[in-house]
Structures are given as structure tokens and as C-alpha cells.
Design a protein that fits this description.
Elements (H helix, E strand, L loop, with lengths): L6 H58 L12 H10 L1 H10 L5 H16 L5
């Protein structure tokens, strides 16, 4: 006759199997997440480089058109977004780059802005 296994031994073995299974499940998810984190880090790095190249376009245009342009800290995303939403020079350039202004219209607006910026303050 076969040996009878007690209920407590069966329950214990079931719990051990459940723990081992959950550990494997967790490790698989953890490995998957680690891969995604690595991929996300690479994508964020590439996005940051592309953003920096775009900022360089604005800086180059500002230097060529003789408009003072001082970006906020590049780590401060909120300040940078606010700066792009409120700076008159950047608003003109964004309109031009989005093809809502011709080059001539853009240059005219930038010239008017430069004249406002360099005009002596009225007391």
C-alpha cells in the first residue's frame, strides 16, 4: 500500500511551489522591466541630443540676427517650456519654422523686435 501524505505536508509543498512560481514570474517581469528601462534611457538620450540640436538652431539664429537670447537652465523643463511660450523672438521663429511665416515676414518681425529691444527706454 502507498504512503499517505499528510494534509499539512501537502499544504506546505503547495506553498513552496507557489513561492517558487511567483519568484520566477517576478524575475521575468523584473528582467523585462530592466530591458525597457535600458531602452527608455537610450531613447531619452537620443531625444535629449535632438532637443539640444534644436536649441542650437535657435541660438544660431539669435546670434545671426543679433537678438539676445538666454535660455533658462536646461534641466528646468517647466522654465524652458514657459520660455518658449513667452519669448517674443522664439514665438516668431516658431511661426517661421512651422511655415506659418515666410522668410521675409520673419525677418521683418525680427527686425521690428530688435528695434524695440535696442530702443532707449523712455523715462
Amino acid at each position: 500500500m502507498g504512503k499517505v501524505i499528510s494534509y499539512s505536508d501537502l499544504a506546505r509543498q503547495h506553498r513552496l511551489n507557489l513561492l517558487a512560481h511567483k519568484r520566477r514570474e517576478y524575475r521575468e517581469q523584473e528582467d523585462y522591466l530592466a530591458g525597457l528601462r535600458k531602452l527608455l534611457f537610450q531613447v531619452e538620450g537620443q531625444m535629449r541630443q535632438a532637443e539640444m540640436r534644436q536649441l542650437q538652431v535657435f541660438q544660431d539664429l539669435a546670434a545671426s540676427l543679433k537678438i539676445p537670447l538666454e535660455f533658462p537652465s536646461l534641466g528646468d523643463r517647466v522654465a524652458l517650456e514657459e520660455f518658449f511660450a513667452t519669448d517674443p523672438f522664439l514665438l516668431i521663429l516658431k511661426e517661421f519654422l512651422a511655415e506659418r511665416l515666410s522668410a521675409a515676414e520673419c525677418l521683418q518681425r525680427v527686425t521690428e523686435l530688435r528695434q524695440k529691444l535696442t530702443a532707449p527706454e523712455k523715462a
